[in-house]
Amino acid sequence: MSTGHAPTPQQCLQLIETARSELRTIGNPAYLCAVVDADGVCDILPLVFSSAGPAIDHGCRASRDLSDGQRAVLVARQADASRLTFRVLCPSTMRTLHLLREALVEDESALADAWC
Questions:
Q1: Which of 37, 42, 102, 34 is nearest to 62 (CA)?
Q2: What residues form DSSP beta bridges with 88?
Q3: Whether 71 contacts 7, CB under 8 Å
Q4: How far does Cα 94 stand from its chain's mean position?
Q5: Fewer CB within 10 A of the terminal residue: the chain, N end or C end?
């Protein structure tokens, strides 16, 4: 069973950055399971899911096989017309441990115009 503490905000950001490209390939929404150890090392498990149910099951199964100090989490990606949302979740409760929202930009010139 998972006995680690919740990942720190910095660990959550590292998880999101590590998982970003894998989550993008599956579509919208997308979920994957990761393991964070006591030292903050993040290990992304190899399966990516397009729905929450199988991802939750996979995360709960992964939690049972962890050693002390490790914790399984889910990383979820959801995009809409103007925003990209990443969540780091507890697989057994689906409680949000970290939330990151990013604005979607059509191209770099639109981003430059937004700052002027």
A1: 34
A2: 75, 98
A3: yes
A4: 12
A5: C
Instruction: Please name the amino acid found at residue 91.
Output: P
3-state secondary structure of 90: coil
Pairing of strands 71-79, 96-103: unpaired
The pLDDT value given to residue 70: 87
Altogether, the residues listed in the chain come to a count of 116
Per-residue pLDDT for 39 more than 60?
A: yes
* Ramachandran area for residue 102 (φ above 0: left; ψ -120 to 50: alpha; else beta): beta
Classify residue 77 by burial, with Cβ atoms within 10 Å: 0-12, 13-18, 19+.
Answer: buried
pLDDT band at 21 (very low <50, low <70, confident <90, very high): confident
Q: Which amino acid is at 52?
A: A
CA angle 116, 24, 72 (to 5 degrees): 115
Both tokens assigned to 23: 């989550």
Query: CA nearest 18: which of 54, 45, 55?
Result: 45
